[in-house]
Each structure stands twice: as structure tokens, then as C-alpha cells.
Amino acid sequence: MEKIAVWGFGWVPPFAQGLVRDLRVRWALEEAGLAYESRLIGIEERNSDAYRRRHPFGLVPVLESGDGTLIESGAIVYAIAEQCEALMPAGQRAETLTWIFAALSTVEPPLWNLFVIDVLNHDEEWAKLRRAGAVDEAKARLAALSEWLDGRNYLLSHFTAADILMTTVLRFIRHTDLVAGFPRLDTYVKRCEARPAFEAALRSQMADYARNEPVAA
Asked: Distance (Å, rounded) from C-alpha 165 to C-alpha 159?
């Protein structure tokens, strides 16, 4: 990949900062040692005709490079990993792909559902009624993941692209103490977040938000 640009939002409210999915792409690029530039849109611009030509659903991230345009964070991270032996070892390609799908298809839905209930709709009556069941669903996924990590530092024998996706999924419930209730998971997240590439990616995203923070009226 050459001349890489990652599209994200110029600013989001504090509750979403560090959670927007372009963080996954930035992290993967940092791990792979690939330079990139940020290209930013306002949230209100996401449904513009110009941006919809990049992303038909008006979401972020979008990755543009000399190889073309990619959407969907999981697909982008996978494409980066295909070019980086450290993120997708040749001997563990199928296993890495398995855990990429597990993060996005099995673990993310109940955790994102809880985020939507707690953070985006906490005052709604339906959210109050639904929350207990949503917590139980999240705990079931966390318990199974914690069991898998018994005796492991990462999802596979060492850090891969799957850990990027799984860690960013687990961050969706950082507003709760659910991950802390599973010490192996808590240690796992902290181990992944301590990686220099994660710290660099988060700094980059947060710097963009700081530069574009709305001026108070």
C-alpha cells in the first residue's frame, strides 16, 4: 500500500472519543509500519453525495491508497494484515481470520448493544427494561472469551490483527466494570493497549479531535 489516507470524523462527543472505528485502522497501520494521513469529515457531512461515493452508508472509516478504496474496518484491517507477517502469520492465516470474525460477529454485537442502551438511550424506558438482558448477553460472551484466554497472552500464539479488533470491541463497554470483572480480560486489554502502536494510533485520533473541537458559544 502507498499514499494511504484514512477517513474519520473531525470531531465526536467525548463519550465516543477513542471508540470510533477508524482507530482500528490507524492501529493496524502503526503495527505494520505504514505511513498514512488523516482525512476528516464533519458528522453532518457523512450523508453528502460526495462522501457517499466513498462510503455508500456514510460511515467511517474509509481507506484510500494507490490500490483503491476500502470500507469497513474489519475488511480494512484484514487487507493491511495480509501485507504484514506480524499481523497475520503465514502459518496462522486461517486462525487469525477466524478470530477476526469472532471479534466482529460474535463478541461485538452484544457489547455494542449494551453501549447503545447505556450511552445513547439511557433515558428511554425501553432501554431500562432491556438492560438486564443485555448485560447477561454481554457477560456470556466475556466469560467464554476469558476462558479461551486462560494461559494465553493473546488470542493466538502472539499478537495479530485479531487482537486489534477484539481489543477495540471490548473498549465499547469501557463505561462499565464488566471487563474488570474478568481479570484475564482486563489484563488482556491493558496488555494490548500498552503497545506503542495502539498508543500512537490513539494519540493521532485524539489530536484530530482536539484540533477540531467546537468553539463554545
From this structure: 11
Q: In this structure, are residues 28 and 77 in contact, taking their beta carbons and an 8 Å threshold?
A: yes
Q: Residues 114, 138: contact at Cβ < 8 Å?
A: yes
Residues near 99 by Cβ (< 8 Å), separated by ≥ 6?
155, 156, 160, 162, 165, 166
Q: Where are the beta strands (DSSP E) in the chain?
A: 4-9, 36-41, 62-65, 68-71
Residue 76 and residue 23: Cα distance in Å, rounded? 12
Question: Per the structure block, which three cell numbers stand in for 25?
Answer: 485502522
In this prediction, residue 34 carries a pLDDT of: 97
What kind of fold does domain 4-86+197-211 have according to CATH? Glutaredoxin (3.40.30)
The bridge status of strand 36-41 relative to strand 4-9 is parallel
What residue ranges do the domains of the chain occupy? 4-86+197-211, 90-195
With both helix axes pointing from N to C terminus, report the angle between 125-148 and 108-115 in degrees, rounded to the nearest 10: 150
The pLDDT of residue 113 is 98
Q: What is the largest CA-CA distance in the chain?
A: 56
What confidence score (pLDDT) does residue 42 get? Answer: 94
Phi, psi of 13 (to 5 degrees): -60, 155
- Cα–Cα dist 11/207, whole Å: 10
pLDDT score of 86: 94
Architecture of domain 90-195: Up-down Bundle (1.20)
pTM as predicted = 0.96
Residues of the chain where predicted confidence (pLDDT) is lower than 50: 217
Q: How many CB atoms lie within 10 A of CB 185?
A: 19
